[in-house]
Amino acid sequence: MGKASADPIENFCTKYTWTFPSNWIQQGSYSIDEANQAVSVSVKPDNCTGGNVTVQGFNCGTSSKIATIPVTRTAQYVPAAITGSSTAYCSNTNPIAFQTLSIPNITIYKWNLPSGWTGSSTSNSITVTPNGKNGGTISVQSFACNSYSNPSSKAIGFQLDPSTTISGANPLCRSGTFSVVNQPSGTSTTWTSSVPNNLSINASTGVATQLGNYSGYATITGTISVCNLPTSQTIWVGNPIYNSISIDGNSEPYPLCGFDNIAFTANTDHIIVTNASANTSGQPAPVTYTLNGMAGVVSGSALSSTTYDFRAKSSNTSFNITVSASNSCATIQQCLQFSNGIGPMLATYPNPSSSTMTVSVTDSLSTDNANALQQSPYRLILFDRFGGTAYSVESDQTELQIPVSTLPSGIYYLNVYYKDAMLKRQVVIHH
């Protein structure tokens, strides 16, 4: 139902003649609104026909001129949203049903399918067969007034079935074979390694081989033929490695036993050893701490599965702590040697620092520490975590003040080069 109107009324005409496009039906007589100088009429158009609506007034002194307005009718019965699966799985050729709500008086629908899919229907529902190689877009249009409406569309994603996964050794020790679980029927797999120079893999058989003594992560990828979709799994290759070792908050590198000692003060320092090492899942591998031959002189207690607190009771001793980590490939050890402070020593405080950090350098082999440093000045370099030099100086002072207020907050590495020794500390700047 529609309404046509003429505005304004010319000289208060009392009669009007209306014309409408073919098959339009006038609903009752027109009405005149003298107050608003308007005249209107109700009309029922057909479904498709357009044309001109005209009106002419009479009995107003003279005939009015004819007023015309063109009316265009288009078929825009856009179908409702399409229901059905939003996902097509690799190699699946099982029929899939889609439908849209029926539109009154519409009997013809046109369906458009993703490339390579098959199926036909002129109703508001359709059953299609995917080709197992791709997804795409399915759409439907309604037909009326000798034309098709705009389409209603639905995107169909294309992927592997979630149950399609990779199976194989993790960790991988020397070699192992990988395969696809729930591989789509009628497909094959091409295998690749993210680190081919460290872990090779046969592209056809999935046999992976560790190269050299590589230890670390690798991603194994199997690309499924036909649909060319990959499935991947990250594994650990070889022995565990230490991600970090820290002692009293100062991180590695620490020397192996038989080289430089790590200083401690008897009955004062709690030598808290922490260790994190990587295994197949990226979580700490099982870690053990062994105190070498110092029962009664050095005591220790576990703080957690990867942290141990040692304390030396004597100032006239040296001792070793062996840190071991294991996975199914091997057990590795890091030996740390502690001494009672013989030789050059480095201390920093406060740590963390916000404005000024004090660095103390001591040569315990000299009876006159100040004179020893004046005879052999040391060089100090503060590195940021990217290896850049944040501060450097040469000094002969037993205590040195380092301004850090302008440095960004973060972890820094302090190296002091004295005689033939290199002393290290990890420090934190926090504002």
Question: Could you explain how this protein is built, in words?
Answer:
- This protein has 431 residues and is mainly β.
- The chain folds into 5 domains: 2-71; 87-159, Immunoglobulins (Immunoglobulin-like), CATH 2.60.40.10; 166-237, Immunoglobulin-like; 241-339, Immunoglobulin-like, CATH 2.60.40; 344-429, Macroglobulin (MG2) domain (Immunoglobulin-like), CATH 2.60.40.
- It is built from 1 helix and 37 strands.
- The chain has one helix spanning 369-375; strands at residues 2-6, 15-19, 25-33, 38-44, 51-58, 67-71, 87-89, 96-99, 109-112, 125-128, 136-144, 147-148, 152-159, 165-167, 175-177, 179-181, 189-193, 199-201, 207-210, 216-224, 229-237, 241-247, 250-251, 262-263, 271-278, 287-291, 298-304, 307-312, 319-326, 331-339, 344-349, 356-363, 378-384, 389-395, 399-403, 410-418, 421-429.
- Strands 7, 9, 11, 12 and 13 form a 5-stranded mixed beta sheet that branches. The protein has a 5-stranded antiparallel beta sheet with strand order 23-22-25-28-27, with no helix packed on it.
- The protein starts with a strand and ends with a strand.
Low-confidence stretches: 255-259
Question: Mean pLDDT, rounded to whole units?
Answer: 82
Based on DSSP secondary structure assignment, what is the total number of beta strands? Answer: 37
Can you count the helices? 1
The CATH architecture of the largest domain is Sandwich
Tally the structural domains.
Answer: 5
Highest-level CATH class of the largest domain: Mainly Beta
Assign an overall shape. elongated
CA distance, first residue to last residue: 74 Å
Helix content: under 10%
Report the radius of gyration as a whole number of Å.
Answer: 42 Å
Question: Strand percentage, roughly?
Answer: over 45%
User: Sheet bearing the most strands, described?
Assistant: 5 strands, mixed
CATH T-level fold name of the largest domain = Immunoglobulin-like
Structural class by SSE content? mainly beta
